[in-house]
Amino acid sequence: IPNKSGRVTPVVMVDPKQSSDGGFERPVRNLGGHVMSLDSLVSADGVFDPVRVLVDRSSKERFEATYSEAVELASDMISGIDPWPKDYRQGFEVALLKALRFGVVNGASCVGEALRMADRESPLPAGMVGPIMDTLEASPLARAVLGVEPGSASLRTADGLSLIMVGSTRIPLPDEGAWEQSSLVQRIGSWLLKMMVFGSASAVSYRGGGVVILDEAWQFLAGPTGAQEVQRLMRLARSQQVLVVLASQRVSDFVDANLVGGISRGLLLPLDRGTGAVDQFGRRDDGQAGFALDLFQVERTDERLRRMSGARTVEGSDLPNWDSMRSLRDPQSGEVVRGTVGLYSDLSGRVVPAEIVIPPAFLAEISTNISDVRARGGAVSMRGAWWGAAP
Q1: Over the stretch 29-64, which tens digit does the pLDDT of each residue have?
Q2: Is the pLDDT of residue 302 over 90?
Q3: Cα 386 to Cα 335: distance, rounded to the nearest angstrom
Q4: How far is Cα 144 from Cα 268, in angstroms, rounded to an integer?
Q5: Helices 111-121 & 129-138, crossing angle to 10 degrees?
Q6: DSSP 244-259
Q7: Which stretches of 82-149 are DSSP H helices?
Q8: How many other CB atoms sit within 10 Å of the CB of residue 118?
């Protein structure tokens, strides 16, 4: 849809699930969207590179307002990843800042290009650039946050829908409180998660209205900087004209990360109820359903918990369980007879049940139901085993 600037609303959706079944990819492509996967260095080269994401060359004023932040963030990221031998980092910090600034001011569109331009102009300190380039050559994760190829796709210039998929790439993270002992790939993984949040928001900021969708949002709260980056995003989103959508089945992480005050509205879908056990402090385990109700200050009633956690079918049969909030299908035809029911909590704190009706043609594109995936010729993952449709 058009935003306030009259252009197609820029939307960046990040799918961080490893070995995702690609359920989002097909509908995004059919809608004319752009798909980038960290599996592919061609499509993902520097997709979250600070220079690509932040620098706006649409006018002299916008360039002056954006390039310094990009240079400083890029320098901070490289220093944080620290690809050099021990105790070399501090000796390179000033030269690194100067090299990045020279390259960006002279037209570089990514970090790798900026460093090469600066080195051609005046040789940089021995041992500074080589380890950075070696890291970019060796790590697909590093190539996602530090680009090498000029002219690769930029989220900042893309209108409409852009999907970022992790694909088969695993994002390793440092253990909590163990940043000093972290490995190179763990430091890269932590910066990648941070830039997925920061970079996506920056790419759609100040463009007349944009949207950032973080699927499996609990993953972005991991690592030493994850929760702070999401908190920062939620504080600045309104002033930057960005709508942030956080989708997750681990609602407890939002409560633990102190994000309760930053969430304005929500759609509470079916979730697990927990064991019902009471701990020594008198707190009852109502599972993720209980945390979701708490997040939006909705009373935990037995009816709400029962309906949110209810099975699709009546116990001992294949008949639809109309007491459940889950989507229901006819046992004979497999057709959807009622969509999922969500509890919608609005800006005024009102909570109402609402059926989610998805057009059948679109449901066939996005459904992760085994039969639907097979019908469109895809493959589905079940407990680590892959099941593919016959050609």
Answers
A1: 888 888 888 777 556 688 889 999 889 888 999 899
A2: yes
A3: 25
A4: 33
A5: 150
A6: EEE--S-THHHHHTT-
A7: 89-105, 111-121, 129-138, 140-145
A8: 23
